[in-house]
Amino acid sequence: MKKYSIGIDLGGTKVLIALVNKETGDVVNWVKKKTKKDKGPKNIIRKIIEGIEELLLESTVSIDEISSIGVGAAGQVDRKNGILIAAANLDCYDLHIKDKIQEHYNLPVFLGNDVEIAAIGELKFGAAKGYNDVVCIFVGTGVGSAIVKSGEIIKGSTGTAGEIGHIIVDLNGRPCSCGAHGCLEAYASRSAIERRIEGALKKGRYSIILDYMENGKSITSHMINKAIEQGDELVTQCVDEAAEYLSGGIASIINFINPQLIILGGGLIDAVDYFYQKVIKKAKARSLPVPATKIEFRKAALGDFSGVVGAAFLER
Hints:
With about 325 residues, the protein is an alpha/beta fold. It has 2 domains: about 5-120 and about 305-310, ATPase, nucleotide binding domain (Nucleotidyltransferase, domain 5, 2-Layer Sandwich), CATH 3.30.420.40; about 130-300, 2-Layer Sandwich (Nucleotidyltransferase, domain 5). Helix content is about 35%, strand content about 25%. The chain is built from 11 helices and 13 strands. The chain has a 5-stranded mixed sheet with strand order 3-2-1-4-8. It has a 5-stranded mixed sheet with strand order 11-10-9-12-13. The protein starts with a strand and ends in a 5-residue tail after the last helix.
């Protein structure tokens, strides 16, 4: 059995491509490409192929030693046919990822949801190892989740289970990238925080984050964290609002699914511990008393590599 696979984590702002040792879960080598400014199907496939080529060029492992390519994409997926059905943050619809990659490489290609692959990685080698009933929630460009029951990913009747970011929290609320209004993602994601900060700045509010946004830079999770550490009122207010909404969504999940463990990951969770601590404190307070006493919280142990490690283990 070949011990290496290529794992690909395709998110709203970046694609991470890694060579993974399946025996140990170690990432041997990796390449990261930005996707935010290159949305659309042709550009996304181009970025993936460029990344794989760069990975192979820099690696001592040959293509003959690789058993498969696994892709986790931020959106709704058709696993059987390897099609990315809809990914609003990438402006991609009905993208035949499997076929497009197999045009270049004579290897089996498997497709899953991005948080699904992160959950697989955390189950095998990370914070969920040894647990059977887990919900993984990742907060970044959007808000996604995966549900693990009895050690298996729950995919649902259409394969789209776990879309916590599209729980409706306000029937007449903010527009969401999915086309609906009032989704949790429109209130609790890093993108939502970014939009709230930028809206306030345009209205004349001051924030120290302006010092980090020179030359037209976008607001990042690390900028948000630095502003909070310096006591910035505007940024703290926007992050507090996002924490309120996310904690409410998580409390609903605790009450409804009653998992043993909730794993929180993604760029915003990794960079802003203030946000993470506030979310778990408020989620526990808002949950029903019995499940609240048993629920555990952990950060994703594999960090940025949760997805690529899990993607290496995708199969039919």
